[in-house]
């Protein structure tokens, strides 16, 4: 028994402390397919992605951050921070102090990004290594005066093939080597907005195209000889839910447009009152039962969405599927941005490569947990963040992990064995020490027997 324990431990120690992961720096490619809702995986067919998962790991639900929009969530993945801490609190922002505006078309001022340090910058500053980006929000901005060594200016018209060709070229021939790379694609988000996720026919077509792109990605990595040694994470920023023309919240019915500035509209509106915050709040509060209205200081703590100057004095949060408008008809059949506890807002995560287990399924992690895991893979010291490395240990071959059901099983098992043993011991002791009246009776009967005979 002792020998077995010693053997187990020495095995663990050599397994963890071996130089296999330290001799060459691990390489990591982080891929995002925008708006890939977690349950698309259950409801549609993805032959290429399923092959990728079969030889790797799958996290079925990634709990992302509020508000569940593209820029904020992509920045949380690469910083491990909630939005209030990394400063990209929406796709449209206004800073009252500097009077600067931010939008997804006007995002290049480092001012907006400098509240955090994304992993591609850390990768280049901590070690003599390069980062490369075939797009990802922020990768074409000099954050802390540093862009990835190789990057593309954002343009939706660059094809997936060109993004893939260039990112693999950079991964292959660069000095110092590219150890961290990103690849971003606009689908299935764009079609999710256009058709709505309940349009099975159109979503089937679009998701098949996405799966074919994953097939191309894996094929290209294999042809170039990158597949065996490269770690690849495929994930997304948020999900998508169906909207309806019957679920409109028209602010114009409740309050005069001239009394506030609308910094961001739907499904989470950011409201900057012009004169009297209380008055604006009181009017909005009774506007529609399908919209929660919060003064900044009352925003629920679970959103982690309060402590930043870029969060406006009043925010409006529409219920799932409801759309906030200014006296207009429904703009989109699908949308996201809603409460991050809604499972329709969650993406998934799949990963493949030498650092990941093969054929392992995990139910859930937080999107902020991805950052400490990526730092571990790259051997980087993480900046302070809101993620928990322990949540991702079960995905990694160099970590020891017991997941919760297993742990509960083991504890119950041990308790059962202990209880059984205790009962047995008590019964045995009772048998040995207490003389049993019944056995005496029998003896007496035995004594009587000869008399009868
Ligand atoms: C450690 O690394 C060296 C080369 O850096 C290699 O020759 C050796 O086999 C490695 N040992 C283990 C246990 O991986
Ligand atoms: C991709 O690489 C090719 C060849 O080096 C280059 O001509 C092209 O501009 C690159 N594409 C982008 C979007 O940077
Ligand atoms: C990105 O755009 C800027 C300004 O338009 C230009 O100066 C720069 O060379 C471009 N960078 C790349 C990598 O294409
Ligand atoms: C970084 O790596 C390159 C190429 O591998 C090398 O030429 C350079 O001297 C290295 N710099 C440092 C500071 O180690
Ligand atoms: C909405 O717009 C229409 C014209 O498009 C106008 O007649 C109506 O008064 C507006 N309603 C509100 C509440 O502003
Ligand atoms: C703001 O409006 C509220 C409610 O209408 C009112 O009680 C309060 O006096 C106003 N405050 C200011 C500074 O005008
Ligand atoms: C998130 O992490 C940052 C950086 O460590 C920290 O300042 C902030 O308080 C954390 N937020 C929460 C809710 O713990
Ligand atoms: Zn979107």
TrEMBL record:
Enzyme class: hydrolase
EC number in record: 3.6.1.29
Gene3D superfamilies for this protein: 3.30.1360.180, Alkaline Phosphatase, subunit A
Cofactor(s) named in the record: Zn(2+)
Topology of this chain in the membrane: Single-pass type I membrane protein
Reaction catalysis annotation: P(1),P(3)-bis(5'-adenosyl) triphosphate + H2O = AMP + ADP + 2 H(+)
Residue intervals passing through the bilayer: 407-427
Single annotated GO MF: bis(5'-adenosyl)-triphosphatase activity
Assigned GO CC terms: plasma membrane
Keywords: Blood coagulation, Cell membrane, Disulfide bond, Glycoprotein, Hemostasis, Hydrolase, Membrane, Metal-binding, Signal, Transmembrane, Transmembrane helix, Zinc
CDD domains registered for this protein in UniProt: Enpp (cd16018)
UniProt record, GO biological process: blood coagulation
InterPro entries xrefs: Alkaline_phosphatase_core_sf, Phosphodiest/P_Trfase
Compartmental location: Cell membrane
Signal peptide: 1-18
Function of the molecule: Hydrolyzes extracellular Ap3A into AMP and ADP, and Ap4A into AMP and ATP. Ap3A and Ap4A are diadenosine polyphosphates thought to induce proliferation of vascular smooth muscle cells. Acts as a procoagulant, mediating platelet aggregation at the site of nascent thrombus via release of ADP from Ap3A and activation of ADP receptors.
Record-stated family: Belongs to the nucleotide pyrophosphatase/phosphodiesterase family.
Protein name as it appears in the record: Bis(5'-adenosyl)-triphosphatase ENPP4
Origin species: Enhydra lutris kenyoni
Gene giving rise to this polypeptide: LOC111147834
